[in-house]
Design brief:
transmembrane; single chain; transmembrane helix; transmembrane transporter activity; membrane; seven-stranded mixed beta sheet; four-stranded antiparallel beta sheet; 2 domains; elongated; 15 helices
């Protein structure tokens, strides 16, 4: 075992000497490895960061959450013209499903209404995202109340003019979240009493944030826009009990809604059941494809880098032919020479890889500074992958030069070196 440490030490010294004595040649040869590792880890880090940001934006929702409505969140076999004829889910269907579907933890009726302007005295906040929902929304999505409370079942059913607003709206209109409680803000031509302020969240990846949102009882919005307005795109958000079988629950949910709508056995569903799990699977699929594409593109840089390492090692073998002959004449075995050059190739490649990782680290820091709340993540796993890949490139690139060095005849090697 000690002999291998000795070989490793000597190989490290030879690699460092190669860097010192032939700076330009070594730099140009390692450039391919550096660029390749930089490309691979940069792609992995960017995709991981994107995935983390997207998952963070939907982390408040349980993976079992279901969206029931006339729109599909993904590809569907239903022709577009036919899907456009599907009826909207209704408030009555929402109430029916709450009673009829077993293992249902919570269901919330929601309307997608246009953004609005909220006013308080002379102050105004434009483009406020409106959440027209029932009270169960609080149980489905993990909203965090910083001050006040969320509206209850009675307020939700009666559609009283109350609102829960985001932290940014509270600070703009009322100077602080505490001061907003009990105040009246004007929205859609009506005065809404602020009963709660959400905890500050920060902006999301695509600009959306609860900090600039207002949540109102859906029945108060229905009085303003009407119950049969096709432009509101209603959905029923449903969350099953924790231990419920998802597939069985979805099948039963479809059966109950089909019965409520009087659909015949030979008729297709005139609604879509969108599972959040399918959305997260889609995210995994997209990020996986991005990783593969990035690895393929980066592979070309590593191929060039591998040829660069091989070139260094062949030159190194030629320059040290005399030394190899002397080592062999003193009893060094072929295996000793082989490992010596293999270790040297791996060390050189790892040095190039470490430079690439350092560049990724610098770029990730700069990118995080210029992109606000979006944080680029350079995980320990990515660092390990970069190091292992660079070591593998060195190992593969150094095999042929190492074998050629190990097979040199000691007498011929000494004579050639002289």
């Amino acid at each position: 075992m000690l002999i291998y440490f000795r070989v490793l030490k000597e190989s490290f010294n030879f690699a460092i000497n190669a860097l010192r004595n032939n700076k330009l040649r070594t730099f140009l040869s390692l450039l391919g490895v550096t660029i390749g590792i930089f490309s691979i880890i940069a792609v992995l880090a960017a995709v991981d960061s994107l995935k983390k940001e997207i998952e963070g934006s939907i982390s408040s929702l349980d993976n079992s959450t279901i969206y029931l409505g006339r729109f599909s969140f993904g590809p569907t076999d239903v022709p577009r013209w036919k899907a456009e004829q599907f009826p909207d889910v209704t408030y009555d269907e929402y109430q029916y499903l709450k009673r009829a579907v077993p293992d249902l933890f919570a269901a919330s009726y929601t309307l997608n209404v246009p953004r609005a302007t909220m006013k308080f005295e002379e102050r105004t906040v434009s483009s406020v995202e409106i959440g027209a929902i029932t009270h169960e929304y609080y149980d489905i999505e993990a909203l965090q109340i910083a001050h006040g409370r969320f509206f209850n079942e009675a307020e939700s059913a009666s559609g009283v003019s109350v609102a829960v607003i985001g932290d940014e709206i509270a600070n703009i209109l009322f100077d602080s979240a505490e001061a907003a409680i009990g105040k009246k803000a004007r929205l859609y031509g009506k005065n809404y009493v602020i009963i709660g302020v959400l905890k500050k969240e920060g902006s999301g990846l695509f600009g959306g944030s609860r900090d600039t949102a207002a949540y109102l009882p859906v029945n108060s919005i229905r009085r303003i826009f009407g119950s049969n307005n096709r432009s509101l795109f209603p959905f029923i958000m449903i969350k099953p009990e924790k231990n419920a079988d998802q597939a069985e629950f979805v099948a039963l949910l479809k059966q109950k809604l089909r019965m409520a709508r009087g659909l015949k056995p030979d008729e297709i569903d005139n609604f879509f059941v969108n599972e959040l799990k399918g959305f997260t699977d889609l995210i995994d699929n997209i990020t996986g494809n991005l990783n593969v594409m990035g690895l393929i593109i980066s592979g070309f840089s590593l191929l060039v880098g591998g040829f660069g390492i091989a070139n260094i090692m062949f030159v190194s073998v030629k320059e040290r032919t005399n030394l190899i002959g002397i080592q062999k004449s003193l009893g060094a075995k072929n295996k000793f020479i082989l490992f010596q050059f293999l270790f040297e190739a791996m060390i050189l490649s790892i040095i190039g890889g470490l430079i690439g990782l350092f560049l990724v680290f610098i770029v990730s820091l700069l990118a995080s500074q210029f992109t606000g709340d979006f944080e680029f993540v350079l995980s320990p796993l990515n660092l390990l992958i970069g190091t292992l890949v660079s070591a593998a490139i060195g190992l593969i690139s150094g095999i042929l030069p190492a074998i050629s060095a190990s097979k040199l005849d000691p007498v011929e090697a000494i004579r050639t070196g002289m």
